[in-house]
Amino acid sequence: DVKVTQSSRYLVKRTGEKVFLECVQDMDHENMFWYRQDPGLGLRLIYFSYDVKMKEKGDIPEGYSVSREKKERFSLILESASTNQTSMYLCASSRQGPDTQYFGPGTRLTVL
Amino acid sequence: AQSVTQLGSHVSVSEGALVLLRCNYSSSVPPYLFWYVQYPNQGLQLLLKYTSAATLVKGINGFEAEFKKSETSFHLTKPSAHMSDAAEYFCAVMYSSASKIIFGSGTRLSIRP
Question: Is B106 an interface residue toward A (CB < 8 Å)?
Fold first, then answer.
């Protein structure tokens, strides 16, 4: 059974803090993705990675960075959290090419 | 620009009634099409996908969707709604040259007893 796990289900941080969200997949997938989900806006792609140490910006990369040092792990970093980054963050992974993306359970981040 | 449009941010049906969730995409290139479901406080789960084989695709939980190229549509249906179908549903499109998915804004399905 495929599995994508995220380090926290709920997280509360203060403005200006550095925040790390971690995602791990056990399917040996090449591609990994970070989305944020906001009501009425659907899912918006922040960054994705198609190989170790490789990354590409998505639609809304501002204020975020990512790290992929190992194939199974993809981290999202908020260098200095702001209140407008309060959101649900979803990680996903897939094989190369046009294939199904498998999602983790999400991290609901609140920035106060 | 490539896009996915889901008509209706909220759909409400009675238990046992037909479920119809609408999805249209914009492209002249045949895409890969997906429907995902999201239950409260969970991630997205694949319901079904179209990958240029049969135009009528059957998925989990009794859902199916039909790809209509002439209408650029991929509507999701279920003959008889169940209370457990209450969730948010996302239509998504992917093009063969990329691994990125474009998601619609979602449709929240409510089921009335």
Answer: yes
